[in-house]
Amino acid sequence: MTTAEKSDWYVYILRCTDNTLYTGITNDINRRIAEHNRGVGAKYTRGRTPVELVFTETLPDRSAALRRELVIKRMKAAEKQLMIEQTESS
């Protein structure tokens, strides 16, 4: 494996200005948040900026991040909110 393949990946949740939640993955969290706020991130967030990072989880590779993203996206909003609150209180 190369160094690039070993780099950490992140699942993240953003709170948009309309108070909705957006879940995504990246290997560079700061760059990705900046892209969302510039309007060049996901189509969903383009009209909902600025966004606020409310949750991150580090995973070992892209595959693991994609699997975790799918689990989170299938959660109800209330479940996501509880996960966010539990992380904030830790």
SSE topology sketch:
Blueprint: H1 3-6, E1 9-15, E2 21-26, H2 29-38, E3 52-59, H3 62-73, H4 77-89
Antiparallel strand pairs: 1-2, 1-3
CATH topology: GIY-YIG endonuclease
Strand content: 15-25%
The CATH C-level class name: Alpha Beta
Low-confidence blocks of residues: 1-5
Q: Structural class per helix/strand content? A: alpha+beta
| Major beta sheet summary | 3 strands, antiparallel
What is the overall number of helices?
4
Q: What is the H-and-E element order?
A: HEEHEHH
The tally of domains stands at 1
Mean pLDDT equals 92
> What is the first-to-last residue Cα distance?
34 Å
Give the strand order, joined by hyphens, for the main sheet.
2-1-3
Give the strand tally: 3
Question: What's the helical proportion of residues?
Answer: 40-55%
Shape: globular
Task: Supply the CATH architecture.
Answer: 3-Layer(aba) Sandwich
How would you explain this protein's 3D organization?
With 90 residues, the chain is α+β, with helices and mostly antiparallel strands. The protein has one domain (3-89): GIY-YIG endonuclease, CATH 3.40.1440. It is built from four helices and three strands. The radius of gyration is 13 Å and the shape is globular.
